[in-house]
Every structure is written in C-alpha cells, then in structure tokens.
C-alpha cells in the first residue's frame, strides 16, 4: 500500500485533488456566506413591503383602533400568515390590541421592526412586525426559489468535483508519463547506451531535468572515450620504453651490443622516462584525493613568479623565444605552499615554451588585487580550439590526439596544476584562440582561509 502511494501519478493525483477540494470548499463557504448576506438584505426589504401591506389591510378593514373581536383577531392572524409574518399591534408598546409574538418562543432574538399606522391624517397605532421564522412560511415564491438554488448549487458542486477528479487524473498521468520516459532513458544509460536521449517535453522543470540527463549521457560518453584513450596512451607510454630497454638488453646479452656507458645510458634514460610517468600519475592521484600536505607560508608572489621565469630562460633562448616578465612594482604577498605553486606555474610556462614556435613571445606576470593575486602566462603559441578549451584541465585529455600537442605526454600536467590550485582555494583559467595563442591565469587568495592545512 505504501509503495502504491509513493508512485508519482498517485502523489500528483492526491495533491491536485486536495487542491481542488480546498478551492471548492472555499467557494462553497463564500457562496453560503454571500447567500446569507443576500437573504438578510432580502428579509429587511420584504419586511417593509409586508408591513405596508398589513397597514393597508388594517386601514381598509377599519381596524386602525382596537380592541378587536375574536373574528377580527382571526382575520388579522390569517393576513399575517398569508404574508409570512408575525405582528403585534396596539396604541403603543404598552397598550396592545393584537399580539402574535407571545405564541412564539425566543422572540427577543427576532428582527422586529416598528411602523406607525396613520389613518385619516392621524397616528392611530404602532405596528410591530417580524418574519415568522419558526413556521418557515416567509414567502412561498422565495422558499421555492431558495430550494431551486440549493439544488442547482449541489448539482454544480457535484459536476465540479467530478471535473476535478478527471482533470487530476489527466494531469497526473501526463506529468508521470514524462517522468516515466525519463526513468526509462536513465535505465538505458545505466545499461551502457550512450546514444539515447530523453525527449525535451513537458513542464519546464521536467524539460530541465531531461536536458540535464542528456548532458550527463553526453558527458559519460566523453568520459568513456577518454578512458579508452587512456588505456591506449598508457599502453603506448609503457610499451615504448620497455620494448626499447628489452631489445637493448637482449642485444647486450647476446653480444650484439657492447656493454658500455653509451648503451647503459640509453637504458637509464628509458627508466627515467618510466619513473617520470609513474610520478605524474601518483601526483595526480594524490591531488584528486586531497591526500597531499600543503605547508602554508606568507610568500612574495613576485619573487615566486620571477624564479620560474628565470628557470625557463635557457629553454626559451634555445628556441629564440622572447620570454618576458611583467613586474607590478608593488608588494604582492599571499599565503601559499611555495613548492607546489612553483610546480603549477612551471607546468604552465613549460607548456607555453613547448607549444610556442621559434621566434614567438611569452609573457609571465603578476597582478595584485586586495583579495587575491593573479599569476598569468600569455604566449603566441599554437593555441587551443574552442571545442577543446572546456576540457584542457581534465585528466588525460590531449588537445592534439596525434600527441604533438603534449609532446608525447598523457595529459596529466594541467590536471595536477588544477588540483594544486584548488587546494589553495584558488582558480586556474585559460583563454585561447587557435593559431593566435593562449593565456593561463592562476588566481590565489591572499589569505588562506582553510583551517585544515599544516
């Protein structure tokens, strides 16, 4: 039973039906309240009309002055019953000639109105009149009208209730149908179908959910493609040095190559290459899992950036690249882990040198702001295409699938840099245009706010 009540269409139906019932209840209450108000106004108007009728009858029958005989009292009773009213008539409130109020209990709560009876220009008596509510004989036509209105109201309420049920069922089915399609789409994605897409239909919230689900499916497809590429890259990166070392060692064992420093150096270089790859992967794993320790100190950010700049001057000079440094000439201090931030900036400048053609220009600089310090690196290199720009910080993503963009690497450097910057509660960004160049910006808060650092 509880499982049935948890279904989307059941919840929607009950919710809509509850809303309709509340609305109908409010309308019915308002209608009844308004009806009572209209009825009260009608009574006040009718009592005046009936009072004038009674006064005309009293004058016409020459009953302006009492006392009355039993026949006259009977006649007055019949006329009052005809008009559906109770009357009391006398010279004044003390001298009463005819009284119907005494036969009815609780007359103190009745709406009694008084009218002077004037005959031949003289005030003959005082007529007190009230509706005969106890006998429920107000006005036969009005009673009939009231009954018809009550019957019609009951019919309208019944029709409205049925329509609310139909509308609730229809709307709940439509909305739950959209959710059902999304559930089916999610099930297909879970089973590995990355081509399926949810229809963008229904209310805005459902459309947004479908759009998000489609984006998730597309992102999963990209991740799977990256995973396949990763396996190929790792296989290549591991097989190449291993194959080279194996062939060289076999040749030396078989006596084809002489065991000397030159051949051993080649084997050593391949081992260094393998070690570097394993180190990069270990760093990325630590960065993504936040297992590394950062040692925060207040550092001069201009000196830090200038140190990286000087480290890469020889490499830039070898390619005839103009490597420049923009000094802001203002104190720029921030709380950072110096070694790890140097690693970040070095990775960015290293990429800039690698992918800037001979004779190009690279500018490293620092901008100071009250809340943060920005270290930037702008180059005139080959640039990054718009389709690749959103993914350059993703692990193992290479802009150039032919491996030239990262010079044979597997795309770990920028991923590590991003993780290290985020560990400083900072942001790393890039703007680039293919064939024009790139600008990387590292924004680091001047004050390290986390209390978890060592």
TrEMBL record:
Q: Which domain of life is it from?
A: Bacteria
Which segments constitute the Histidine kinase domain? Answer: 233-448
Q: Which GO terms describe its cellular component?
A: plasma membrane
Fetch the PROSITE patterns from UniProt: HAMP, HIS_KIN, PROKAR_LIPOPROTEIN
What reaction(s) does this enzyme catalyze?
ATP + protein L-histidine = ADP + protein N-phospho-L-histidine
Q: What are its GO biological-process terms?
A: cellular response to phosphate starvation
User: What is the official name of this protein in its record?
Assistant: histidine kinase
- Name its species: Paenibacillus cremeus
């Amino acid at each position: 039973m509880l499982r049935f009540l948890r279904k989307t269409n059941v919840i929607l139906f009950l919710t809509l039906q509850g809303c309709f019932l509340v609305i109908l209840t409010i309308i019915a209450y308002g209608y009844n309240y308004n009806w009572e108000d209209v009825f009260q106004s009608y009574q006040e108007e009718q009592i005046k009309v009936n009072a004038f009728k009674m006064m005309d009858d009293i004058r016409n029958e020459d009953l302006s002055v009492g006392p009355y005989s039993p026949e006259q009292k009977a006649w007055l009773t019949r006329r009052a019953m005809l008009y559906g009213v109770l009357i009391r008539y006398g010279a004044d409130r003390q001298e009463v000639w005819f009284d119907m109020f005494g036969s009815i209990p609780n007359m103190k709560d009745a709406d009694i109105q008084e009218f002077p009876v004037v005959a031949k220009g003289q005030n003959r008596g005082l007529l007190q009149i009230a509706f005969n509510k106890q006998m429920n004989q107000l006005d036969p036509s009005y009673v009939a009208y009231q009954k018809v209105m009550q019957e019609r109201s009951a019919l309208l309420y019944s029709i409205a209730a049925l329509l609310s049920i139909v509308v609730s069922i229809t709307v709940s089915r439509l909305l739950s149908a959209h959710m059902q399609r999304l559930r089916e789409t999610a099930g297909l994605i879970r089973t590995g179908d990355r081509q399926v897409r949810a229809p963008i239909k229904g209310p805005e919230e459902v459309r947004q959910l479908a759009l998000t689900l489609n984006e998730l499916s597309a992102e999963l497809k990209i991740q799977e493609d990256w995973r396949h590429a990763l396996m190929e890259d790792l296989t290549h990166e591991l097989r190449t040095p291993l194959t080279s070392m194996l062939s060289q060692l076999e040749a030396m064992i078989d006596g084809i190559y002489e065991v000397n420093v030159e051949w051993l150096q080649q084997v050593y270089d391949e081992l260094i290459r393998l070690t570097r790859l394993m180190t990069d992967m270990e760093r990325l794993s630590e960065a993504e899992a936040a297992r590394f320790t950062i040692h925060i100190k207040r550092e001069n950010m201009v000196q830090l950036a200038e140190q990286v700049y000087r480290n890469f001057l020889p490499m830039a000079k070898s390619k005839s690249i103009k490597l420049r440094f923009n000094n802001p000439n203002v104190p720029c201090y921030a709380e950072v882990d110096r070694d790890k931030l140097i690693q970040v900036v070095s990775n960015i400048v290293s990429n800039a040198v690698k992918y800037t053609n001979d004779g190009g220009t690279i500018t490293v600089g620092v901008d100071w702001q009250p809340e943060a310090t920005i270290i930037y690196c702008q180059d005139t290199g080959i640039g990054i295409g718009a389709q690749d720009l959103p993914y350059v910080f993703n692990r193992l993503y290479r802009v150039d699938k032919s491996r030239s963009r990262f010079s044979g690497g597997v795309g770990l450097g920028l991923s590590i840099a991003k993780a290290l910057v985020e560990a400083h509660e900072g942001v790393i960004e890039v703007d680039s245009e293919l064939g024009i160049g790139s600008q990387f910006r590292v924004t680091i808060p001047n004050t390290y706010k986390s209390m978890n650092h060592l």
